[in-house]
Amino acid sequence: MPNNSLEILDKTTPYAYFGSSEGPMRSLPRRAPIIVPPGTSVRNAMLQMNQLGNDSVVVVDDASKLPLGIVTQSDLVHAIAFRGEDLEQPVAALMTAAPFTLPADAPAHRATVLMAQRKVSHILLAEADGTLCNVVSRGDLFGLRGGGAEMLAEAVTAAGDVNTMAKAATAIRRRGAELFRAGMSAEGLCQWMSALNDLVAMRIIELVEDEFDLPAVPWCWLVFGSGGRLEQAFSTDQDNGLIFLPGDEADTERLRKSFLLFAKAVNSGLDACGFDLCKGNIMAGNPDWCLSLEEWKWRYLSWMSAPEPEAVLNSTIFFDFRPLYGNYNLVDSLRKWLIPQPAQYPIFLRTLAEEALTCTPSLGWTGGFVYDGGRKYPHTIDLKLHGARPFIDAARIWSLTHGAWETNTGDRLRATAKAMNLPPEETAAEIEAFYLVQRFRFQQQLSSRSDDRANRLNPSDLNQLNRLMLKEAFKQAKKLQLRLKLEYGL
Description:
The chain is α/β, with parallel strands linked by helices. It has helices at residues 42-52, 73-83, 108-118, 149-158, 162-181, 186-209, 225-228, 252-272, 293-305, 309-315, 328-338, 346-356, 384-402, 409-417, 424-447, 464-488; strands at 35-36, 56-60, 67-72, 96-97, 101-103, 122-126, 132-137, 219-223, 240-244, 290-292, 322-326, 381-382, 456-457. 47% of the residues lie in helices and 10% in strands.
């Protein structure tokens, strides 16, 4: 029998994960940035960093108040120690001009991946008017912290062809399995794997993009489903799409044809790197999911305004989208448009709830496990369908109801708890239960020898303590579904 015993992690484990992956970066705990005018001396800048405990200063224009550049402590030490730079010269002479900048409300995961891709250690967070909000360093972010992530990220960004990229992707999965067995939490593993998987996909897109003469219009690669939720681990397939912005809507079909060949090549490259082709063909190489901004809006409106049960079931993963590569502003504008929409379609939300309640946790009213494998998989539970999905569906419905930006299940539960007047300890228990189910899933994926059994668990393979833990997690899922029933009168 496979050994599916699990260890309870405490707060001291080196791989524990603390923090949100998709919350706005402006909410990250961080000292206020040091802001200096261009004429400030290098000596003065270093003195301020030393006194205030910061590792950087931002050079800001006196008149416009817009950031001109950034100087880090390591920049100054290197300039003085190895180049003999004058301490009395203006700090602007040593700054990195036009530094890497993201909107202050961009998700932390996006910064993690882009900083690794561009090999920068600091990022400026800007308000909508371009003024400085704060500065974030790699140490403030979680996704690629520890576990050999930096070396793996370097191998990914240095890969020059798909075959080399495939080897790097295999090394990532192998190292992820080692960290998981060493005690990394399920949430931490998802963030770690998702960040590196994103780098792999982005590098594949870069390599393929060089082979095509793409239209000169804004476009972006989208990820949906578990990839969009940052919940992929060892058993993964592709759920992706492409969005573009034509200068003239009459050019939409011509532009789509140009993007489709490129998208199909990317899908093939991802498949070669271990991201299996989607059996449902939800991929950017399918013209149904290679759409203009207006077409995506129309598609979402059609799902919400005429919520047939089958259409709703097929559309749910599309509400878990996030941008991966290209023009992020295009996808952010789609999300900003979408966020207030679901609340205007209560029948759609009710249909989502009805569909969610058809997938119940695998726990009977007497407290025993309920098996769903039939004769083909006797005495087993589909942990994806009857374990994780009740949490995922409920969190999605509440995020759509309350206009939450997040797509990650844990982050959605955190983001909507206040609007639903839920005590923090109750939300914490729900998130802990979800990631406990995920941990059992990942353990099963690592021990399974076939894809069709990757999420199927025989509870008899667990020791008594882990069976009790799994039952308690299912009880939390039942509580979530009971809340859905009460909210929608189902």
